[in-house]
Amino acid sequence: MKESHSQKTVLVTGAGVRIGRAIAVALGRNGHQVAVHYNRSKEEAQQTVAEIRNAGGVAHSFQADLSQPLLSVPEMCQSIRAEFGGLDVLINNASLFEEGLLLDTTGESWERQFAVNLQAPFVLSQEFVRGLADDSRGHIINICDWRGEAHPPGHDAYTLSKSGLVAMTNMLAKELAPRIQVNGIHPGAILPPPGADEDHDRRAKESIPLNRTGSPEDIVSGVLYLLQSSFVTGEILNITGGEHLG
Questions:
Q1: What are the residue numbers of the active site?
Q2: Of 67, 69, 95, 72, the residue nearest 164 (C-alpha)
Q3: What is the mean pLDDT of residues 23-52?
Q4: Across all residues in the chain, what is the average pLDDT?
Q5: CATH number, domain at 126?
Q6: For residue 149, is pLDDT > 50?
Q7: What per-residue string of b and e applies to 154-164 under the rule 16 or more CB within 10 Å gives b?
Q8: Could you tell me if residue 3 is inside a domain?
């Protein structure tokens, strides 16, 4: 089995905005070819591609609605393989984060979050494995959430979908070894949610032992570590400032 080259072709889902964009740009600047996925954030995805190209990297954007993964994912992956010739790394970053306790969670919200947060990473992983050359090694990195193991109430469908993603990470690490390393990252308070008030960061710090919020660069560092390691699989990095400790 041949070792993977230093330059990899990477698909980052939800790469037009926020953490996904930071990951995509960093990988592009580190010499990797980047497939920038987006759903509705076309302009932002094009800006991500432009930033990578302006830094001397290679990137193209690809649209897919991950709320319909069985319809959209195979077509997107086919387009990526046609453009780049293959994929070495899959980063499942795209996610929906919707509030809702037990009695507040609608069927539509449940289905939406489970489709994007769990079914889509599973279908993407299927397509990734099917397209990986027999003599190549690969990486799958799932952007999970510490809530998926601590289970605080408040975002019930979201938390349950992330619990499934944690289980999938552990399961596929066993199933796909030794050819494919499968790991995850639990981000903590990295960016305020859309629409958050000005006091959000101050309140967030109160539950973080390190008494500060993180930055997208903290997640990027975790991704780069996992991609550089040849002896880590089934690991989920808590990049939370200690918030996951409760």
A1: 158
A2: 95
A3: 98
A4: 95
A5: 3.40.50.720
A6: yes
A7: ebbbbbbbbbb
A8: no
